[in-house]
Structure formats: structure tokens, C-alpha cells
């Protein structure tokens, strides 16, 4: 599975995203933590004249702080597969004396190693900063460990899933688009279904706020990272120590995503149709199903938006819903008909 | 030995390769010629393992290159695009190829760079198109592969670079028993250097012959008749009209040459002359009428 040459090749292909990942993690984690510590220290040394006791009493961290890193993880996957397809670089890679399975797994391993090292390095620095700076007077560094336990498997799953999307997408643009869509698909599709049911008189919004449950957040991979929230306030009379994260049992979900993505991705990469590089999809077989899915989702989305416009908040319009859905479906169908045969390749 | 057996490939519903069979022995330079879009590049990409055949197999020394790509240690492919390594510096490429190919000869590679006066410390993107093509060729030969596949290696190059490249290929083949498969539109190049001519037409191998055999099985003549070309001659299946200017006809005879010349003479031409023949004449005659030449 490990070939020095493939590692070097991946290094060249993915280095812009890898560097950006390390830099973004450094800026949004240890650099930001250190900045917070420094400003807290500055406040302690120059307290507000009217309330000198309130200088360093609260600290917060949210997973959304590293949302740029999550984008870059998807970008790395797109550089490793989609960009090769777009720039004809597959002609070099596939003519080399390596098994396709090894080529795919080397890409996966390359990404995973950098994700793990980037996160571990920067989160350990964060823990040290929390432990050994003024932040330790407010926050407990264990929240960083808890964040690490969540962000590591979920980031690997996001990367693996995006890499898997690369085995079916024909270009960097389609890989980025499809990765984004399918990573948010569970919560997005659920919203569309709930909206559809509501327009038909069945309201499920009250059932335990379905969209915010751990399971939905975890299946929508980026959500569980973004929704991580730690807030501590030790102001006198205002003791708050709040940690919002998914249950650790949910870690099984990124594990399943990763296993599925690696197994199916390896299988599909071994059977890739390089003659379709540059197109929206590499395989011709799934095109009908894909078209059906896109048309359905567009119809539901247009229905949700249009139904609201036609009717009032309390009395949604079913005619408006179906009219908008039909427009959305037809638009999607014709748009896709053009897009699916469009070839996007450069550098010949 | 490279063996392509019953390879077929359909792309976007169009049969691009149709039951292609091909065998190439070591020590051969084979020129793959055919008109645009007949499947030359597709065939080379199938042989290189970039594309999978729908049917059939490609073996090198009886090892299937699609199932056992490690065999490609012994073969390299130079695509028609010179952009494949453009982000790399020469040093990085050497490190990469040294890691890929067990027999990559670094010293030989640098000696060739010196010989062809190519820079050693620059990025490939700073090279001109001709320099890139020459560089990729040098790189390919430095892997010490036994089979080298070149897709349109001299496209867009100036005559001096082109001559250098061709000379270099001939030298390499004569020094060690390697096999070079070249796809090209430049028939004069094939004529100068190739031992074997592979003509491909509509996804099928039209013929695989030595250049000499190809030439000896054709004859080009110019004839003038009192009136137009007699129907008896025009309807002969092995006679192709390459050109007509007034009553002057340039004919290409394919096979059965002496008997056909007799028939032409029996029709009492005012003038008949045998013309020197180029590979281009054979190409036009075999792979499509003059009006369709790409």
C-alpha cells in the first residue's frame, strides 16, 4: 500500500491544501487560544475601572472556528483525485507501474496522516496553552481532549467520503460540488422531507427537534464538529460551565462512513472510466439514478421555498408548492442534461 | 513482447477500438498511423493501462498489464500532452522517477540533459514546448524500459528539435533491444525510422507490415488517356485515383501490380509513368480519399 513514489506524487498534488490545512489549524487553534490568553492577561493587568473583578472570567470555543479546515479537507480530497482528472494528470498516474488500489489507498493514507498530524499537533498545543497560561484559571483543558476525540474521526470520515466522491465525480469542480452536497445531504434531505410533510398537514417539527438530534448531526458529518460548543463563565454569581457535544457512542458513525468510503472507493477507483474524465460523473451506469435524485431534490427545494411565498406562514399553499416543485424539477432536469455531458478539462 | 489481443473499446456509445490485435517484438520501431479520431491515442492509452478495454487483453511478456500493472516497470508512456509534470522541477522529477522505476538511470538522464543542452535546475513549466517534449522523451528512455510508447512525440516541434528526437530514438533502439511504438501524423518520420507500419482505420488495424513490404505492395503511376480514364480501369478494386488534373490521372495500385499494369497498358494510354512513392501516398490510398485527409 505504501510506495514512496506515490507519497511523493501525492505530496505534489495535495501540497497547497496540506499547507493551508496546517496554517488554518495553527491560526484558528493555538494562535487563537494564545491570543485569547494574552488579551485575558492584558485585561487582568488593566482591568475595567468600573468592574475590575470581571477581567478574565469567561472563555468559549466552538467547533465552527475550524470550519475552514473542514473545507480544506474536502479540498485536499479534490486535489488528490478531481484535479488529476481535470488536468490530464491521470494519464501519468495510471500509466505508472502501480495497482489502482494502491494509488487510491496511498491518497487516502496521505490525507489521513496529514489530518491526524495537523489536528494532534495543534490541539496538543492548545491543551498546553490552556494548561500553562492564564486560561487555566478559567477553563479545564479536558474540553480540548473531548474535541479531539470528536474532530479526528469526523475529519477523517469527511476526507474519506470526499475521496470516495472523487471516484465517481469526473472533475475537481464536480467532486467539490458533490462532496459538499452529499456531506450535508442527511440534514438537507430531512429538512426537505419535513417541509413536504408539513405542506401536506403532517408536522414532525415538534418530535424532539428531529434535526438537532445527535444521530442526524453525526450522519451529517461536519455538523457534529461545527456544533461542538464549550463555554465557561466563572464570574461571581454567574457560574456557567457548558459543553455541548455529541455522545461518544456516535463515533461509530464516522467509523462506518470511513470504512464504507475506503472499501467502495477502492472498488470504484479500480474500475474507473478515465475516458469520462472532465465530465460530471465518471460512470455512465448511475446517471439515471443521479438525475432522478437531483430532480427530486430540486423539486422539493423549490417546493419548500415557493410554497412559502404563495401561502402565508400559517396557511401554506399546496398549489404553490407543487407549481414551484414542478418548475424546480424541470429546471434541474434540463440543466443537468447539459451539465452531464459537459467536459471540463484543461492543460492538454 | 507486447501482445494486444482482441481489444475492443466503446466510448460514449461509439466503437473506438474494434477487435484490435497487435504483436510487437523487441528491437522494433513501430509507427502507428491513421486519421484523426480513428482510435490511435485510445489504443495507446489502453496499452498503457490508463483505459480498460471492454473486451480483450494487453500483455507484456505474457503478463496482463491491467491485472498486474507492476509489469509496467518495463514500459513507459509519453502522452501527447507536455503539461503532465509542469509543476515539477527537474530535480523533483528525477527523485520521483528514481522512486518509481527500479532501473531509472540518474547518471544517464543527466548526461542526456547535457547532450541536448537542457537546463537542470529549472521548473518544467519554464521549458519551451519542444524542450518539454525532448525532456519527457529523455526521461522515458532513462527508465531503461523495454517498451516505450510515444503519443505524437513531435507535434508542434521545430525541425531541428524534431530531428534530434528522431535521431535519439534510432540510437536508443539500435543500442539496446527495446521496442518503440509511436503514434504520429508525420509520415515522413515513420518512413525514416520505423520498421513496422501499423495502419488503423475506424478502430480496426487495417494492416501491420514492414515499411518495405508496404511500399512493395503499392505502385504509383501517372497515366494520360485520350479521353477519360477507361471504366475498366476505374472499376478495378485495387486501383485508387489519388489525383486527377484534366485527363492526367495519378493512380495508386494496391497489390497484383504487374497484372494491373498490363490492364492499364491494354487500354492504350497516351502516356504512362511510374512515380516515386511516399508513405503519405499509401496513407491516403489506404486510409481515406484525398478529400478526407486530416
TrEMBL record, chain A:
Transmembrane segments annotated in the record for this chain: 16-35, 55-81, 108-130, 142-164, 176-197, 246-269, 289-312, 318-336
Family annotation (InterPro entries): ABC-5_transporter
Statement: the UniProt record of this protein carries the keyword Cell division: no
Keyword terms: Membrane, Transmembrane, Transmembrane helix
Protein name: ABC transporter permease
From TrEMBL, chain B:
Record carries keyword Protease: no
A GO molecular-function annotation: ATP hydrolysis activity
Entries under InterPro entries matching the protein: AAA+_ATPase, ABC_transporter-like_ATP-bd, ABC_transporter-like_CS, P-loop_NTPase
Protein name: ABC transporter ATP-binding protein
Alphabetical keyword list: ATP-binding, Nucleotide-binding
Domain ABC transporter: 2-227
A Pfam family matched in the record: ABC_tran
Amino acid at each position: 500500500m505504501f510506495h514512496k513514489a506515490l507519497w511523493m506524487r501525492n505530496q505534489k498534488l495535495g501540497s497547497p491544501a496540506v499547507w493551508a490545512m496546517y496554517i488554518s489549524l495553527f491560526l484558528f487553534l493555538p494562535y487563537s487560544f494564545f491570543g485569547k490568553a494574552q488579551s485575558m492577561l492584558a485585561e487582568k493587568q488593566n482591568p475595567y475601572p468600573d468592574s475590575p473583578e470581571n477581567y478574565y472570567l469567561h472563555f468559549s470555543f466552538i467547533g465552527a472556528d475550524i470550519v475552514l479546515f473542514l473545507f480544506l479537507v474536502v479540498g485536499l480530497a479534490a486535489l488528490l483525485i478531481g484535479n488529476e482528472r481535470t488536468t490530464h494528470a491521470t494519464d501519468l498516474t495510471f500509466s505508472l507501474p502501480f495497482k489502482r488500489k494502491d494509488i487510491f489507498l496511498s491518497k487516502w493514507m496521505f490525507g489521513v496522516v496529514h489530518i491526524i498530524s495537523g489536528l494532534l499537533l495543534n490541539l496538543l498545543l492548545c491543551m498546553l496553552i490552556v494548561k500553562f497560561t492564564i486560561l487555566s484559571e478559567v477553563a479545564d483543558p479536558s474540553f480540548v481532549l473531548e474535541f479531539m476525540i470528536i474532530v479526528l474521526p469526523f475529519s477523517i470520515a469527511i476526507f474519506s467520503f470526499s475521496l470516495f466522491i472523487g471516484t465517481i465525480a469526473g472533475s475537481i469542480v464536480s467532486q467539490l460540488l458533490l462532496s459538499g452536497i452529499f456531506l450535508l445531504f442527511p440534514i438537507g434531505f430531512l429538512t426537505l422531507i419535513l417541509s413536504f410533510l408539513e405542506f401536506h398537514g403532517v408536522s414532525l417539527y415538534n418530535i424532539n427537534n428531529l434535526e438537532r438530534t445527535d444521530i442526524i448531526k453525526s450522519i451529517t458529518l461536519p455538523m457534529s464538529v461545527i456544533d461542538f460548543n464549550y463555554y465557561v463563565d466563572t464570574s461571581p454569581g454567574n457560574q456557567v460551565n457548558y459543553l455541548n457535544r455529541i455522545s461518544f457512542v456516535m463515533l461509530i458513525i464516522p467509523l462506518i462512513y470511513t470504512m464504507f468510503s475506503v472499501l467502495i472507493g477502492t472498488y470504484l477507483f479500480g474500475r474507473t472510466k478515465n475516458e469520462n474524465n472532465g465530465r460530471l460523473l465518471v460512470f455512465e451506469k448511475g446517471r439515471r439514478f443521479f438525475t432522478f435524485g437531483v430532480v427530486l431534490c430540486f423539486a422539493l427545494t423549490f417546493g419548500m421555498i415557493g410554497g412559502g411565498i404563495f401561502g402565508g406562514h400559517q396557511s401554506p399553499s399546496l398549489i404553490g408548492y407543487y407549481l414551484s416543485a414542478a418548475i424546480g424539477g424541470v429546471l434541474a432536469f434540463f440543466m443537468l442534461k447539459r451539465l452531464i455531458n459537459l467536459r471540463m478539462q484543461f492543460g492538454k | 513482447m507486447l501482445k494486444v489481443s482482441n481489444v475492443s473499446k466503446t466510448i460514449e456509445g461509439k466503437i473506438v477500438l474494434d477487435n484490435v490485435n497487435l504483436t510487437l517484438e523487441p528491437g522494433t520501431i513501430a509507427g502507428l498511423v491513421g486519421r484523426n479520431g480513428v482510435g490511435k491515442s485510445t489504443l495507446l492509452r489502453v496499452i498503457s493501462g490508463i483505459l480498460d478495454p471492454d473486451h480483450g487483453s494487453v500483455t507484456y511478456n505474457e503478463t496482463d498489464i491491467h491485472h498486474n500493472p507492476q509489469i509496467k516497470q518495463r514500459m513507459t508512456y509519453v502522452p501527447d500532452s507536455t503539461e503532465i509534470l509542469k509543476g515539477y522541477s527537474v530535480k523533483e522529477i528525477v527523485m520521483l522517477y528514481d522512486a518509481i522505476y527500479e532501473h531509472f538511470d540518474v547518471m544517464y538522464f543527466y548526461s542526456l540533459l547535457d547532450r541536448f543542452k537542457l537546463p537542470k535546475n529549472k521548473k518544467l513549466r519554464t521549458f519551451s514546448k519542444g524542450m518539454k517534449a525532448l525532456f519527457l522523451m529523455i526521461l522515458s528512455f532513462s527508465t531503461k524500459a523495454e517498451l516505450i510508447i510515444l503519443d505524437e512525440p513531435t507535434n508542434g516541434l521545430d525541425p531541428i528539435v524534431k530531428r534530434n528526437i528522431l535521431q535519439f530514438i534510432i540510437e536508443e533502439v539500435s543500442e539496446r533491444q527495446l521496442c518503440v511504438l509511436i503514434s504520429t501524423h508525420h509520415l515522413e518520420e515513420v518512413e525514416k525510422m520505423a520498421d513496422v507500419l501499423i495502419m488503423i482505420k475506424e478502430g480496426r488495424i487495417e494492416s501491420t507490415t514492414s515499411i518495405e513490404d508496404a511500399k512493395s505492395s503499392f505502385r504509383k503511376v501517372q497515366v494520360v488517356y485520350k479521353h477519360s480514364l477507361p471504366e475498366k480501369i476505374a472499376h478495378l478494386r485495387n486501383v485508387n485515383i489519388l489525383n486527377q488534373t484534366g485527363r492526367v490521372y495519378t493512380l495508386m495500385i494496391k497489390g497484383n501490380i504487374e497484372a494491373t499494369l498490363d490492364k492499364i497498358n491494354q487500354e492504350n494510354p497516351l502516356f504512362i509513368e511510374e512515380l516515386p512513392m511516399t508513405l503519405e501516398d499509401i496513407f491516403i490510398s489506404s486510409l481515406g480519399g484525398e478529400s478526407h485527409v486530416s
